[in-house]
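User: Can you recover a sequence for this backbone? Please restate the input before giving your answer.

Assistant: Of course. Working from this structure:
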């Protein structure tokens, strides 16, 4: 089988395509012939050597795949060879064949393509957990979505539109027209305007109920200030630490020293809450993830959302895919195609 390896920390060019023996599924696993694999910012952080959850280098990155089951181990539920599926993977997703525990595998409808399916797990589960689980999203809530044109950003926008929230999204100006067509209520150019001032003006000084922040650093403090009473600040990343194509210890230090301190006394006094999420830390709780995925698939079946696939890259173009995502050129999902 073919796999894409991170051989050492560094720029996208450290990604290398290699050959490995075809794996056999163990008890409780199925083997999937991969048709599409998602590319996520966590993969970039891992390539830079600054992702704390990543295994020791060298390793094969990748958190999500879609394809067809071509082998089934003992005790793998009701799955059979030939089933069309998609899955969450604990790394290893940049492979053309992969064995996955069956509890991390989901059947896909005949009308759910492999590419759409590979675009759902990380982005939509993250957005769902942030908004519906931790954020207690309600109709009419005002929600700030950072990186609104990215994979998680568009997923969050879809969920907000399904529930009936008012949305504020930061994005570069070239992406505003697309976001407006995607029913974003307020597109904000974070490069030329202070989004904190802009949102306070748009809300008449009242702020928002939910802030989704994958950025980290001083953005966390700004997001907290933007919260209305009862507001929820949801952290799910620290992409501001990845400012270049190589690891920067200076940027890591800057990130750490800019982290605000939220004491219980302050939270009580301000009537605000702060939460953090990491889908990659829920491997021991598949029942939670499967419940959330059931709701997402219901919405997909009802045609309430469709992932937006920006670009696909061949395995041989993995470095180009990482450049594209890290340069923030994408609108929506970036996929690798074996």
């Amino acid at each position: 089988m073919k796999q894409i390896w991170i051989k050492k920390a560094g720029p996208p060019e450290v990604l290398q395509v290699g050959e490995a023996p075809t794996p056999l599924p163990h008890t409780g696993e199925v083997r999937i012939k991969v048709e599409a694999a998602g590319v996520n910012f966590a993969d970039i952080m891992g390539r830079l050597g600054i992702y704390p959850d990543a295994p020791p280098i060298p390793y094969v990155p990748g958190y999500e795949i879609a394809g067809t089951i071509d082998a089934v181990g003992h005790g793998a539920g009701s799955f059979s060879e030939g089933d069309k599926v998609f899955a969450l993977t604990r790394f290893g997703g940049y492979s053309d064949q992969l064995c996955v525990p069956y509890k991390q595998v989901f059947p896909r409808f005949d009308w759910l393509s492999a590419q759409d399916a590979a675009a759902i797990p990380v982005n939509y589960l993250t957005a769902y957990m942030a908004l519906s689980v931790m954020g207690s999203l309600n109709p009419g809530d005002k929600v700030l979505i950072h990186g609104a044109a990215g994979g998680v950003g568009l997923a969050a926008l879809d969920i907000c539109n399904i529930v009936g929230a008012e949305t504020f999204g930061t994005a570069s100006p070239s992406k505003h027209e697309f976001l407006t067509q995607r029913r974003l209520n307020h597109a904000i150019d974070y490069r030329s305007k202070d989004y904190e001032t802009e949102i306070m003006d748009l809300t008449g000084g009242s702020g928002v109920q939910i802030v989704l922040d994958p950025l980290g650093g001083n953005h966390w403090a700004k997001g907290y200030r933007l919260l209305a009473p009862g507001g929820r600040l949801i952290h799910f990343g620290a992409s501001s630490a990845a400012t270049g194509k190589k690891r920067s210890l200076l940027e890591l230090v800057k990130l750490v020293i800019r982290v605000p301190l939220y004491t219980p006394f302050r939270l009580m006094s301000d009537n605000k809450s702060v939460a953090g999420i990491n889908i990659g830390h829920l491997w021991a709780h598949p029942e939670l993830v499967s419940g959330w995925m059931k709701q997402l698939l219901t919405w997909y079946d009802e045609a309430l959302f469709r992932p937006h696939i920006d670009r696909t890259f061949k395995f041989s173009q993995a470095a180009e895919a990482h450049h594209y995502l890290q340069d923030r050129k994408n609108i929506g999902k970036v996929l690798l195609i074996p």
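That completes the design. The radius of gyration is 20 Å.
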